[in-house]
Amino acid sequence: MIEPFVRLLRGKRLDEQRPYVIGNCARASPDEDAASKLRTATRRSAAKGYNMFNSSLGDRRWSRRGSKGVQVNNLRNCRIGVIGLGYVGLPLAVEFGKHFDTVGFDINARRIQALKAGRDATLEVSSTELAAARRLSFTGELADLKVCRTHIVTVPTPIDTYKRPDLSPLIGASTSVGKVLKKGGVVIYESTVYPGCTEEICVPILERESGLRFNRDFFVGYSPERINPGDKEHRLPTIKKVTSGSTPEAAEFVDALYRSIVTAGTHRASSIKVAEAAKVIENTQRDVNIALVNELALIFARLGIDTEEVLKAAGSKWNFLPFRPGLVGGHCIGVDPYYLTHKAQEIGYHPEMILAGRRLNDSMPTYVAGEIVKLMTRKRIHVNGARAIVFGITFKENCPDIRNSKVVDVVRELQNYGVHVDVHDPWADPSECKHEYGIRLTRAPKARHYDAAVIAVAHREFRERGVKEVHGMCRRNHVLYDIKHTFPASEVDGRL
Ligand SMILES: NC(=O)c1ccc[n+]([C@@H]2O[C@H](COP(=O)([O-])OP(=O)(O)OC[C@H]3O[C@@H](n4cnc5c(N)ncnc54)[C@H](O)[C@@H]3O)[C@@H](O)[C@H]2O)c1
Question: Which of 85, 243, 245, 465 is the most exposed place for a label (fewest CB within 10 A)?
């Protein structure tokens, strides 16, 4: 029903769009069919007690529907607030900031300071890209969000020490948005959550803080993020985006908003819960598949077969999925499944396969450390007091993100065996590593110094340096273990 509007939007610059009024769209649009669908949706929404949500391009001709009528959001005058400027929020704010007045808000004052100075510590956005977002400003002051009618929440959704969802950032952000939310406002959540979280947890906070009524005075949407930090090929505009809204009209608005920046297009989910579930299963599916391949790696190690050789052979079949063994860390794949299992348990279902996958993936650091120690003893290297160098601490390659890094677990395991471990990573921030894990990064590993070397993350620098240089950092009798299959099997002592 929003098609005529979307066509208009595609064809022209946003500020060239004609005012387009939902109630008058039959006249404004050449597409009678779409117009009639829109009128039907309008009537249905009115029957359900929703106030009309204007997805028009201009609001001057908006006709209010009775005393409770709401001057709703529209794209032309859309001012967007992005709450949480991390790996997800900043690229989003930058894309919107090219087309709309956008306010990027974060509670981390250092982050705001750096962004104002044109520096992004996550390395997702260059200073040139930041400068290109001419309509984007940064702030740590909540009051600056008052000019916005559309708020997009992109705060973290971690787990606590008991591996339960820690919703405190989401609750904090909803509390803040509730304080600045206006009639006709739309709050879109992008953070990964379990199905039902947006409407069960966030909406009541927005209502309480704003004093406004859900789906009458304000609306919500959910549009999960799918970016892959460090991936310069799959970027926000080129990844199809799932959208959803709390009313048909809100869903249209959310969809149109994202279509204006995502060239790959959108997939409009039938409800917020469907969109929430879709995101959480994307990462759960990856986690379970990696767990399967990790289990295969454990079996093949016992059989004396190289896992990569087997995967290459099996991968020659068209429908064999290309998963690789490895440590599953980071902020998404190793975390999101717990959001789903938490919700499942809350409704009385005890997930088996998902949690089995989680247990297996979480056990991999212990396995890896055990393998390294076995290889050392076989070479008669005295483990207690030996020196090891671990290459890479970030949770994945070519990315500075160290959150929930499972390399740290490998380091701790080796330390438990009495090994002195140095860690070298050109991507990680040394002060963050010290602060988060108490690990002081080694800037330049010494030559001929180590009894064991571990390639834990396949950063491009390590590949470029080559295996010879790594061997050169070790004593004559040493072990090289390659978790990530960075070098040929023949050049290393062991790998997953
Ligand atoms: N990083 C990814 O690869 C990725 C990909 C897809 C989805 N996600 C999901 O997106 C969400 C955000 O992840 P991220 O990686 O961008 O997190 P992040 O930690 O990089 O960034 C979050 C930002 O939010 C800020 N913040 C925290 N609480 C706040 C509050 N109350 N008000 C304002 N700002 C606040 C933090 O200071 C931080 O700068 C998570 O739910 C995550 O699961 C992440």
Answer: 465
Answer whether 0.70 is exceeded by the pTM: yes
Best residue among 225, 286, 395 to mutate for probing ligand 1, ranked by most atoms within 8 Å of CB: 225
Q: Which residues contact 354 (CB under 8 A, 6 or more apart)?
A: 284, 287, 288, 337, 340, 341
Q: Which residues surround ligand 1 with Cβ inside 6 Å?
A: 83-89, 105-108, 111, 154-157, 169, 172-173, 176, 190-192, 225-227, 229, 331-332
- What's the mean pLDDT in 273-278? 98
CA distance 183 to 17: 24
Task: Name the catalytic one among 25, 332, 399, 474.
Answer: 332
Single-letter residue type at 445: P
| Local structure of residue 200 (DSSP, 8 states) | I
- The first and second tokens of residue 335, run together, are 């975390």
Residue 431, phi then psi, degrees to nearest 5 = -70, -35
Cα(391) to centroid(ligand 1), Å: 27
Query: Hey, is 259 helix, strand or coil?
Result: helix
Q: Are strands 266-268 and 241-243 parallel, antiparallel or unpaired?
A: parallel
User: How far is 367 from 377, CA to CA, in rounded Å?
Assistant: 15
Q: Which atom of ligand 1 is nearest to the CA of 111?
A: 39
**Tokens representing 230?**
């460090």
| Best mutation site among 167, 286, 331, 333 for ligand 1 pocket (most ligand atoms within 8 Å of CB) | 331
For residue 475, give the H/E element and its range: strand 474-482
Cα separation, 170 vs 192, whole angstroms: 10
pLDDT tens column, 367-393: 999 999 999 999 999 999 999 999 999
* Cβ partners under 8 Å of residue 234, min gap 6: 227, 228
Distance from C-alpha of 34 to C-alpha of 47, rounded to nearest angstrom? 20
Distance CA 283, CA 194 (A): 12
Q: Express each pLDDT in 148-207 by its tens digit.
A: 999 999 999 999 999 999 999 999 999 999 999 999 999 999 999 999 999 999 999 999
- Could you confirm whether 332 is annotated as catalytic? yes
Tokens of 354: 């998902």
Closest CA to 289 of 231, 328, 318, 329: 328
d(CA 253, CA 273): 17
What are residue 474's DSSP bridge partners?
450
Residue nearest to atom 1 of ligand 1 (CA): 87
